[in-house]
Design a protein that fits this description.
By secondary structure, this protein is α/β, with parallel strands linked by helices. It contains 14 helices and 22 strands. The chain has a seven-stranded mixed beta sheet, with helices on both faces. Strands 9-8-7-10-11-21 form a six-stranded mixed beta sheet, with helices on both faces. Helix 5 links the parallel strand 7 and strand 8. The model has no long low-confidence stretch (mean pLDDT about 95). GO terms for molecular function: succinate-semialdehyde dehydrogenase (NAD+) activity; succinate-semialdehyde dehydrogenase (NADP+) activity.
């Protein structure tokens, strides 16, 4: 696969690929075989300060571009990404491990945000307010918030960047991206294509680093950075939120999840099993909105469990280059230890291991797709995000019981329900304490809908027309005439 033209190993600051002052680097590891793919520049405080200075200078001019001009840059970036979809997908799979088909889908999904916000850039409407006095005219305009810092995770290293960068650039903001150290290559490839698209110097910057706390501290304490957007764990989100308090930054936080699926007796069994599989096992279960707790009503429990087991048993586990692979490796050894801890806790408390449960014969961080039956609410899997290919089945009898268990979580990102009863769809959807609800559907994310959670799953929304507002400030003008 000819990926060399996209394989960048230096930081991208002010329109140039540069090394760290001290030439410090860190390795990027292929999770399938634990081999080093390459060494990448390890940015520190000095590079972070340089990026902020460059972004501030660039943003001063970028905000003056007409929305239609910014739109054209984004459209060109979108076109280049889609022209390079196969190479970007290969690079993504190599550093992250997911099957190539899933990576192809992620590249297209990520690009869709750029295409969407290329259009939304032209729709940052203000308003005229009916005046309170005849000699007044009252107006509201929208302006870019300023320099944006984005801290992104490893599980969707392309989408998590484009979902933040596209609306930021569309709004007239410059952006500094700190990608996860596990997956910096996708971020740097996007920088190369942004450069080819002609996006002005300093508007789009990428700081690869293994020194997350050092670089993160520079970004959060800087008064020149006016917004932080972060996707990651609730624990880290709280730390960043506290660090941003001194400069009162605008915040978007997409944090942890523990998504419940509620499957009622009248659900379409075949379609429901397929939808749950799509939600649970995509990216080896390493998605923030993947089903983590599967509540199944007693009348359909046995049939659902058997059908799920039958289909999951046929999954192919392997390297992304292998034909027909469904499940790739987990990102690292810590992820393996977490699923082992969740399985051990559940079995010790009475759950039944129905399928899998072991590190895969391939070794490394490959893990068998696993099903636990008769899980109860007191087990770790019901209160921690597993982030691995583990399906936990929990029986229930009544709708009220299911809702109560589903809401028994500090998280409130996504939930799913499966039923043919339209009255129940409304009742349950309104009662679930989450920002997203999938109804008879396991794949619910897209660029046109608002994505985000409530409770300790975060603040703000990404995607949709609402996603642009996150990068705009409202200014009221009162004119005497």
């Amino acid at each position: 696969m000819p990926i060399q033209h996209l394989l960048k190993t230096q930081a991208y600051i002010n329109g140039e690929f540069i090394s760290a002052k001290n030439h410090r680097t860190f390795p990027v590891i292929n999770p399938a075989n634990q081999q080093v793919i390459c060494e990448v520049t390890c940015c520190g405080e000095e590079e972070a300060e340089l990026a902020i200075k460059s972004a501030k200078q660039a943003q001063h001019e970028w905000k003056k571009y007409a929305a239609k001009e910014r739109s054209k840059f984004l459209q060109k970036w979108f076109e280049l990404i889609m022209q390079n979809q196969e190479n970007l997908a290969y690079l993504l799979s190599m550093e992250q491990g997911k099957p190539l088909n899933e990576s192809r889908g992620e590249i297209a999904y990520g690009a869709s945000f750029i295409e969407w916000f290329a259009e939304e850039a032209k729709r940052a409407y203000g308003e005229i307010i009916p005046q309170d006095r005849s000699d007044h005219r009252l107006l509201v305009i929208k302006q870019p918030v300023g320099v944006v810092a984005a801290i992104t995770p490893w599980n969707f290293p392309n989408v998590m960047i484009t979902r933040k960068a596209a609306p930021a650039l569309a709004a007239g903001c410059s952006i500094i991206i700190k990608p996860a150290p596990e997956t910096p290559l996708s971020a740097l490839a996007l920088a190369e294509l942004a450069d080819q698209a002609g996006i002005p110097k300093g508007v789009f910057n990428v700081l690869p680093t293994a020194l997350a706390e050092e670089v993160g501290s520079v970004l959060t304490r800087s008064a020149d950075v006016r917004k932080l957007t972060f996707t990651g764990s609730t624990k880290v989100g709280k730390i960043l939120m506290a660090q941003c308090a001194d400069t009162v930054k605008k915040l978007s936080l997409e944090l942890g999840g523990n998504a419940p699926s509620l499957i009622f007796n009248d659900a379409d069994l075949e379609k429901t099993v397929d939808a749950v599989i799509a939600s649970k096992f995509r990216n080896s279960g390493q998605t923030c909105i993947c089903t983590n707790r599967i509540y199944v009503q007693s009348g359909i429990y046995r049939a659902f469990a058997d059908k799920l087991k039958e289909k999951v048993r046929s999954f192919i586990v392997g390297d992304f280059q292998q034909q027909g692979v469904n499940i790739g490796p987990l990102i690292n050894e810590n992820a393996v230890q977490k699923i082992q801890r969740h399985i051990g806790d559940a079995v010790n408390k009475g759950a039944i291991l129905a399928l899998g449960g072991q590190r895969h014969a391939l070794g490394s961080t490959f893990f068998e797709p696993t099903i636990l039956e008769n899980v109860s609410q007191d087990m770790l899997v019901c209160h921690e995000e597993t982030f691995a290919p583990l399906a936990a089945l929990i029986p229930f009898d009544t709708e009220e019981q299911a809702i109560s268990m589903a809401n028994d979580s500090e998280f409130g990102l996504a939930a799913y329900l499966y039923t043919q009863d339209f009255s129940r769809i409304w009742r349950v959807s309104e009662e679930l304490e989450t920002g997203l609800v999938g109804i008879n559907e396991g794949i619910i994310s897209n660029e046109v809908s608002p994505f985000g959670g409530i409770k300790q799953s975060g603040l703000g929304r990404e995607g949709s027309r609402h996603g642009l507002e996150e990068f705009l400030e409202m200014k009221y003008l009162c004119m005497g005439v």
